[in-house]
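FORM 7B: Structural annotation worksheet

SECTION A. Query
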Amino acid sequence: MAIDRQALGFGDSARAVYAADPWNSRGRLYPESLSPTRSDFQRDRDRIVHTTAFRRLKHKTQVFIAQDGDHYRTRLTHTIEVAQVARALARALRLDEDLAEGVALVHDFGHTPFGHTGEDALHAVLEPYGGFDHNAQSLRIVTKLERRYAEFDGLNLTWESLEGLVKHNGPLIGPNGEGTRGPVPQPILDYCALHDLELATHASLEAQVAAIADDIAYNTHDIDDGLRSGYLNFEILEEVPFLAGLMREVRDRYPNLEDSRFTHEIMRRQITRMVEDVISVAQANLRDLKPDSADAVRHAGKTIAGFSDEMQATDKAIKKLLFSRIYRHPEIMRIRAGAARIVTDLYQAFMDRPREMQSHYWYGQIESMPEQVKARHVADYLAGMTDTYAIAAHRRLFDDTPDLR
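SECTION B. Predicted structure
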C-alpha cells in the first residue's frame, strides 16, 4: 500500500518561499533514493543523532571539565540547547525546522577534548601542517571519519546540511577571493573540490538561525554555570545593564525568591529577549530584501538572522564578562594549562609511536605515511577523544598526568 505523504504533513504550506525545500535538495555526493516517510533533511538529522561523534559530546568539555560536577553543561547538553533554540527560531520564521535542527546538532562535532583549550593546543602542534579548525574537523567527521554505511564513508549528508555546517557563521571567501577569517582550512577546500559548497555565499536562513542560536545558548548557559561554580554572582552580573534590568524585573515580581529559582528566571528571560530580538531583526530584513527562494537568501550579501545593534552591544558585554570572570579566571587558566599539556603530550607520543593509538583504523599503515598525512590522522584520533578518554590515555603513557580539578 502506498504511503500518503500529504497525510504525513509533507505538503505543509506554512513553509516560506525563502526556506530550504526538503523535497528539492541539491542532493548528496553519493546519490540515494528518496525515503517515502522522511524528507532528506529529516534523514540528515537522524543520521547525525545516531553517530559515534554525537555520543562522544556527552564527555567533552563545554566550559567546565566534566570532573567539576554532573550539573555543568557538556558539549552534548549545549548542543541540545542550541538545537532547541534553532528550532524555535526556524518555526517562527517559517523555515525548515529539520534542517535548522540538524545544523545545530552537528555544529560542534569537530571539537576536541577540553573545549577550546584542546583546540588551541592541537592547532599549535599542527601549525606546520595547516593547523586545526574544529569546523573543518566537523566536516571531516561527517564526510570521511564516521564509518557506518556499506556504500560510502561519512554520513553522505545533503548539500544543504554540509553548507550549513561549513558556512553557518558566514561566507569563507570574500569578494576578491581572500579568506574572510584567514586561510580556508584545507579539509574544506578538499571537500569542495568534489562537492562545491559555494564558500563565497551566505548559508541558508536555517543555518543562520542555528549560528545565532549557538550564541544565545552559550551566552545564557555559561552565565548559569558560572553562577553555579561561584566564579560569578548576582552582583557581578550587574556590570551588564541588560542583565541588571532582568534582575530588577525578577526581584520586583518575586521579591523573596530563592537563588536557584531567581537564576532560572533570569536565564529564561534572557533567552526569550534574545530570541525575540533575532526574530524581529530577521523579519525586518526579509521585508526589505523580499527573497523569493533559499538561493536569494544565500546571495543577499548580508546575514539576515542576527541581533539588533542594541542586542549586539549586549552580546559583546556578556562575552567580555564571561572572558574576564570565567574563561580567563586564574583557576580556569591553571586547569586549561594542564589540559593543553595532556593534548600536546598525547600528540607527540602518537607521532613518535603510532601503534599506541589503540583501535585506530590507520594502525596498520600510519608508520609509513608522510609526516603531514600522519599528523592529520593523529589529529583525527585526538580530536575524537572525550575528556575522560584523553586523561586515561595520558595516564597510560605518562607517569605524571596533570590534575584538572
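SECTION C. Observations
Residues 205-329 form one domain. The chain has three domains: 40-168, 205-329, 331-397.

SECTION D. Sign-off
Analyst initials: ____
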